[in-house]
Amino acid sequence: MNERMAAFRARLGGFAFGGDYNPEQWDRRVWDEDVALMRRAGVNLVTLGVFAWASLEPEPGRFTFEWLDEAMDLLHANGISVDLATPTAAPPVWLSHGHPEVLPVMADGETFGFGNRLHFDPVSPRYRHHAAQITGALAQRYSHHPALAMWHIGNEYGPTAYTPQSAVAFRDWLRRRYGDLSALNDAWYTRFWGQRYTAWEQIDPPAVPRTWSNPARRLDFKRFVSDALLECFVLERDIVRSYRDDIPVVTNFMRFYQHADYWKWARAEDAVALDIYPDPGDDDAHVAAALNFDLMRSLRGESWLLMEQAASAVSQWRVNNVKRPGRMRLGSYQAIAHGADSVLFFQWRASRGGHERFHSAMLPHSGTASRTWSEVEALGNELPLLGAAAGTSGTAHVALLFDWDAWWGLELTYGLPRNDFDYTRLATEHYRPLLQAQYAVDLVSFDSSLAAYTVVVVPNAYLVSDRCAEALARFVEDGGTLVCSYFSGVVDPANQVRQPAYPGAFRRLIGAYIDEYWPARGDETFELTFADGTVAASDWWQESIHPETATVLARYTGGFLAGRPAILDHRLGAGRVVYLGTRLEQTALRDTLLGAVRDAGVAPVVDGAPAHVEAVRRGEFLFLLNHSDSDAAEVRVPAGVDLLTGERVGGSAVLAPLAVRVIEEIR
Second label for 23, Cα 20 to 30 Å away, from 86, 255, 469, 587? Predict the structure, then answer.
């Protein structure tokens, strides 16, 4: 049991509701209005101090905590808890101006200067010293303040530096990983192009080269960056825990973020927290959002925190569309359905200036007369109806493999048959049919146990560890169903091609070998026919497959590979592998994937619902969400009570467009 998070939920009485609050940006007279409106909107948690380092330490070692004292006291007096941030994502100008070595240098050699945020080299000893100093001062002063409910370390960790001090830290990381230069040279295959190292000092970060660079070196640098950033988090986490050890310590992750291996990070904090800003102009954005939510829940196998979202429009897209009426509420409940124990926003009050001055807020520039405020206020006063669902979790029998090593290997090391892979898009393509057919899905990494699952889906795991390959083989032999897509199992964690023949790690698993990869030319498409006569199309990728112990589910009916296998069905032990050797059109991918899931005996959360209805179960609570702006839906449901309306339901429930139902089942 996660005792710190259980105490956090008990303190708040269920779900957290609120967002980032920046009182230092406003005159003191505004604060009283803020807390009065927070109470009116049902706010019970705000995040303080995320970017306030300059306001808390305007000169080295001179702390000005008086304004924060007053803000903390005011919030506590009004029954609002505080998620107190260490402000180390935005170092003050005195640090970067006085000590320019703390600034990161980008891969092209340009310095990332002051004026944005995250302008720090994560391995800089001076940056870490000052970050520890401000963190210690905050912890000493506020650890036992009655408003404090959670620590929020840094913010959206991300900078990568190509500085001399980063080179030193990279070499130390490599020494720990490989032990000696001989092992490193073997792992990096430095005999190619005569790149063999004879001294550690010869190794530098892989800054932008004239042409191409060693793929294993690039991959290891990515791993090093993730670990270096995690060291910054752990440094500050351990400081605040040294003053008080009974409240949660978190930082905020980001949607599909490549610089940090969140499987490793999640183990270092008390809860996973996510910042997510789906594009309101993308009608399909809720699919990728659901995948991110399931990833966050899976990272620790428990409920998580929605730390930031937008009340309406954001400011980072070329065109920043508003969230149309009902969409903010629907997206908030979607996060809760997938395990979130909070609905938090960036930010409480819209900023008058700065880059995000047009980023929406809970309290917009137009104040309480606005549509956004009305929707925020209504949601905040509705959430307590669901308090019993906080902390609960559901059960999934389908898992989708999503691993940062697989991602980095596929996208960042180049020299592949095609170099335009988009790992998160491919993962989303495999996830969409499962979501739209109302299946519960967990995500797993190379190191995850597969014992709880009946079906595992592997989208394009070009790089795979020995442990994962062995676990997948045992899973199938023990009766599991594996659906695996093209260009998987090809290289080991050192980015070396597994021998003999493709796909080295999965050859026995798929019951075939591949002698050539055939990327499509331009908009080239491929027709294929299934064994039952169904005709489908694919594009983007083909493989020259030679079955050994597998049978053929579909063959190409045209082109140079006419008559050759496109999709395989392999029985291994007590289980089954379906291998997709091409990028199937959406309908064919859906039918093939869902056919394998149904054949494995996995049942959806609800039966017969249309694709625009999302059904998710958290414990005894069934969440139904209608993502259509225009179409109502009728869904078969068990007997229960809709917590949002108090209505007793049973047999079926009607969802209006954009409607949400939360049904507590009667057992």
Answer: 255
Q: State how far the Cα of 115 lies from the Cα of 660, in Å rounded to an integer.
A: 42
> What sign does the dihedral 56-58-61-62 (CA atoms) show?
negative
Provide the residue count of the chain: 667
The answer to whether 308 is a known catalytic residue is yes
Q: Based on the number of CB atoms within 10 Å of its own CB, is 419 exposed (0-12), middle (13-18) or buried (19 or more)?
A: exposed
Catalytic residue among 57, 236, 269, 308: 308
Q: What DSSP character marks residue 302?
A: S
What is the largest distance, in Å, between two alpha-carbon atoms of the chain?
77
pLDDT at 115: 82
Given a contact cutoff of 8 angstroms between Cβ atoms, the answer to whether 160 and 86 are in contact is no
Tokens 């796909």 found at = 503
Q: What is the domain partition of the chain in residue ranges?
A: 1-17+272-393, 173-215, 398-599, 613-665
Task: Determine the average pLDDT of the residues in 472-486.
Answer: 98
Query: 304 and 296 in contact (C-beta within 8 Å)?
Result: yes
SS3 406: helix
Nearest CA to 644 among 667, 621, 619?
Answer: 621
Report which of 485, 439, 468 is spatially closest to residue 580, judged by C-alpha positions.
485
pLDDT band for position 599 (cuts 50, 70, 90):
very high
Q: What Å distances lie between residue 639 and 385, 607, 648, 666, CA to CA?
A: 19, 15, 8, 6
List the 148-152 sheet strands across, edge first. 249-250, 148-152, 81-85, 45-48, 16-21, 342-345
To which CATH superfamily is domain 613-665 assigned?
A: Golgi alpha-mannosidase II (2.60.40.1180)
Annotation marks residue 585 as catalytic: no
What number does CATH give the domain 398-599?
Answer: 3.40.50.880
pLDDT at position 413: 82
The whole-number pLDDT of residue 111 equals: 85
User: Helical H runs in 123-191?
Assistant: 125-142, 164-178, 181-188
Matching CATH topology for 398-599 and 613-665? no
The DSSP secondary structure of 449-485, one letter per residue, reads --TT-SEEEE----B--HHHHHHHHHHHHTT-EEEEE
* Distance between CA atoms of residues 485 and 458, nearest Å: 6
Task: Give the pLDDT of residue 210.
Answer: 63
CB 221 within 8 A of CB 206: yes
Q: Which one of the listed residues 156, 236, 411, 614 is annotated catalytic?
A: 156
